[in-house]
Amino acid sequence: MTGDKPPLAMTMGDPAGIGPELTIAAWRERADGAPFFVLAAPGILAAAAKRAGLEAPVIETNPAGAAAAFSKGLPVVPLKNPVEDAPGRPTAANAEATIESIARAVEAVHDGAARAVVTNPIAKSILYDAGFRFPGHTEYLGELAKAWGEPAFPVMMICSDALRVVPVTIHIPLAEAPQALSSDLIVRTGRVVDRDLRLRFGLERPRLAIAGLNPHAGEGGAMGREEITIIAPAIEILRAAGIDAVGPLPADTMFHPKARARYDVALTMYHDQGLIPAKTLAFDEGVNVTLGLPFVRTSPDHGTAFDIAGKGVANPASLIAAIGLADRLTR
User: Fold this and answer.
1) What is the tens place of the pLDDT at every residue in 15-29?
2) What is the pLDDT of residues 180-194, one digit of tens each?
3) Are 65 and 190 in the same domain?
4) Are 2 and 331 in contact (CB under 8 A)?
5) CATH code for position 92
6) Do residues 195 and 214 share a domain?
7) What percent of the chain is helix, strand and coil (3-state, nearest 5)?
8) Do 105 and 180 fall within a single domain?
9) Distance in angstroms (rounded) separating the CA atoms of residues 145 and 136
10) What is the pLDDT confidence band of residue 2, given thresholds at 50, 70 and 90?
């Protein structure tokens, strides 16, 4: 239970995706969970509930009234931008509303009206068509964090009971990852991970396992020298700062059960190197957590799933896990 703490602020995500029906399902599974409100178009949520055949009264409210309304229905704080209701048919016409939902959720936390942000999935390509200039949620949240007047270095962590993993380079083409990788980037990422696992997750001394970039971690330079020139020096800097970091480790032997028992989080050098094992081990329960921000942000660890949107078959487990983790991290 969360007592009289503010509710969580949930974003709409892309309204053509599964976000609306997941939100309805999460509210119906609320039990004794944390109250939340959604920044969305009330009609979109009502239509999603009707399509899925789920009873979920939609209550139009403001953040201050959300907690009181939560037991009676799904609290929805209306957006200013219009939203088209077309499940499975994404359109750039919804981009402004999607972006507004994210910005206002962060603003609600900044103003004390909410205590964490839970984001529904977005389709970045749709936002790009409307002029969105950030690679993804993570980078946009870092920009919004400037309202706190504090430096932010957002770091994406995929979290489940089976594995925590942090990709050092994130939403860039694979061909660009080696050029983007640097000792400084690894060190900055490792420092944020160590700090937030201590302060927010309560780990007294987090154990960081750091992957190599190349097969077999470069095989002593025979398969690439990034491990020698970039990764190993970064690990030495982290160790000198008192951080428990090991590596560079061959990525192909880091994720079996015995290996995972030896660390608290894996740092991988590019997106798929870490997210493939993370999603294989816990696709329905994984949560995307953004570290390095002055506020807590969680998200389901999956995409918009346009192919099944509006059919009422999407699994809400990851969104429910994201709500639960945001609640735990902000108690």
Assistant:
1) 999 999 999 999 998
2) 999 999 999 999 999
3) no
4) yes
5) 3.40.718.10
6) yes
7) 45, 15, 40
8) no
9) 15
10) very low
- Cα separations (Å) of 235 from 108, 177, 228, 267? 38, 18, 11, 11
Q: Are strands 287-291 and 155-159 parallel, antiparallel or unpaired?
A: antiparallel
Write the pLDDT tens digit of every residue in 163-179.
Answer: 999 999 988 899 999 99
Q: Is residue 7 domain-shared with residue 147, that is, in the same domain?
A: yes
Element (H, E) at 244: strand 244-249
Euclidean distance between the first and final Cα of the chain, in Å? 9
Give me the domain span that covers residue 80. Answer: 1-152+294-331
The pTM of this model reads 0.89
Task: Express each pLDDT in 60-72 by its tens digit.
Answer: 999 999 989 998 9
276-293 pLDDT, tens per residue?
999 999 888 889 999 999
- What is the identity of the amino acid at 36? F
Q: What is the strand order of the sheet 74-78 is part of?
A: 58-60, 74-78, 36-40, 8-11, 117-118, 297-300, 287-291, 155-159, 164-167, 265-268, 207-211, 244-249
139 and 248 both lie in a single domain? no
Contacts of 129 (CB under 8 A, 6+ apart): 92, 95
- Exposure string (b/e) for 190-222, b if CB count within 10 Å is 16 or more? bbbbbebbeeebeeeebbbbbbbbbeebbeeee
pLDDT of 1 > 60? The answer is no
Please tell me whether residues 25 and 160 are part of one structural domain: no
- CA atoms of 105 and 19, how far apart (whole Å): 15
Q: How many domains does the chain have?
A: 2
Same domain for 320 and 299?
yes
The alpha carbon of 301 is separated from its chain's Cα centroid by a whole number of angstroms, namely: 7
* 2 burial via Cβ count (<10 Å: 0-12, 13-18, 19+): middle
Which residue's structure tokens are 């920044």? 39
Collect all residues with Cβ–Cβ distance below 8 Å to 66 and sequence separation of at least 6. 7, 35, 36, 37, 75, 77
Per DSSP, 311 falls in state: S
Pure H helices in 249-297: 257-260, 271-282
175 and 143 in a common domain: no
